[in-house]
Specification:
alpha/beta, Rossmann fold, 2 domains, 6-stranded parallel beta sheet, 3-stranded parallel beta sheet, 10 helices, 11 strands
Length: 292
């Protein structure tokens, strides 16, 4: 069993990006800019936004966070997004989800122009992904594909089973892996909670991607010997032996599943670390397209 080290890979990717941005700076050129819009004071969202800002600054990117009150109207939020759509200093716009209930997330995502949609959620970019055109890939699925490539895991003709159908992970990773491209070209099955016998499908997987949002849901009897297991889940479970009173676990029962696998991601330290790295990659790619 080989551990897929997302922490190490993410640092490699950020180091590569840092060198490219240093070259831009040395040449006196504009650098990529990312603005993150945070509405309200959700602690998890605040932590994630702070991590993004620090990562950008460390690489020499222009970084800005718009911190807005939870009471902001949908119209006011859209007007702020439009301002950044037209601001040449910023090449990527990210609105941190979830948003307050009085704001329609679909409307907000669609208000970000596709050229600056570095989260890959705008329907134009989702459509381009579906038909295999060049686009921005959602950051978590992008991180999974990059991980498979960098560990030289064969994907062509392999059966990838995705457990979960979210618009953020499940659907886009299935769409990415089915494309006739390097690091993809899989036979793909999408499963979800309505499956009467989920195990029947997961046991067929050469590559099993768990993104269902349930702690330790994938057990050893659901995984075949030698499978590659990618655990996207981040779940907080009670653990009174820790200082915080909880621990973070994935959707996979790691302790019992790991011995059966050829490769597996840990949680934490796996896919989650790749997400921010690929956001930075998307921002750099947006910069290249806008500034060329």
């Amino acid at each position: 069993m080989i551990l897929l080290d997302g922490t190490k890979l993410a640092e490699e990717i950020k180091t590569e990006l840092g060198e490219k941005i240093k070259k831009l700076t040395d040449e006196g050129k504009k650098v990529p800019g990312l603005v993150t819009i945070l509405v309200g004071e959700n602690p998890a969202s605040q932590s994630y936004v702070n991590s993004k800002g620090k990562a950008c600054q460390k690489l020499g990117m222009l970084s800005k966070t718009e911190r807005l009150p939870e009471t902001i109207s949908q119209e006011e939020l859209i007007s702020i997004i439009y301002k950044y759509n037209n601001d040449p200093a910023f090449h990527g716009i990210l609105v941190q989800l979830p948003l307050p209930k009085h704001i329609n997330e679909d409307v907000i995502v669609e208000s970000i122009i596709p050229a600056k949609d570095v989260d890959g959620f705008n329907p134009v970019n989702v459509g381009n992904l579906s038909i295999g055109k060049d686009t921005f890939y959602p950051c978590t699925p992008y991180g999974i594909v990059e991980m498979l490539k960098r560990y030289k895991i064969e994907t062509s003709g392999k059966h990838a089973v995705v457990v979960g159908r979210s618009n953020i992970v499940g659907k886009p990773i299935a769409n990415m892996l089915v494309q006739k491209k390097e690091g993809a070209n899989c036979v793909v099955t999408i499963c979800h909670s309505a499956a009467k016998d989920l195990k029947k499908f997961t046991l067929q997987a050469d590559i099993l991607i768990a993104a269902i949002g349930r702690a330790n849901y994938i057990t050893a009897d659901m995984v075949r010997e030698g499978a590659v297991v990618i655990d996207v889940g981040i779940n907080r479970v009670e653990d009174k032996t820790t200082e915080k009173g909880y621990k973070i676990v994935g959707d996979v029962d790691f302790e019992n599943v790991a011995p059966k696998t050829s490769y597996i991601t840990p949680v934490p330290g796996g896919v989650g670390k790749m997400t921010i790295a690929m956001l930075l990659v998307n921002t750099y790619e947006a910069y290249l397209k806008i500034e060329r």
